[in-house]
Write a structure and sequence with these properties.
single chain; alpha+beta; two-stranded antiparallel sheet; 18% helix; 23% strand
Length: 62
């Protein structure tokens, strides 16, 4: 998948239950099951399967 922070295709993983809860707590989103995180070292930028940049500014996992 393409990463908007890395500016290239990188491996991504679907968010675990703990990561989904963290995103819910941080953003107020109700449904987070369709988010993926970039696996590039030091990145962690979030995206959905269909939208490479679903947030106004890139959002990363903490």
């Amino acid at each position: 998948m393409y990463c908007s922070t890395c500016k290239r295709d990188e491996p991504h993983h679907p968010l675990s239950k703990g990561e989904q809860q963290q995103l819910k707590d941080d953003s107020g989103l109700k449904h987070t099951g369709n988010y993926w995180a970039c696996d590039a070292p030091g990145c962690g930028t979030l995206r959905t399967a269909f939208d490479k940049s679903p947030f106004y500014l890139p959002r990363k996992l903490k």
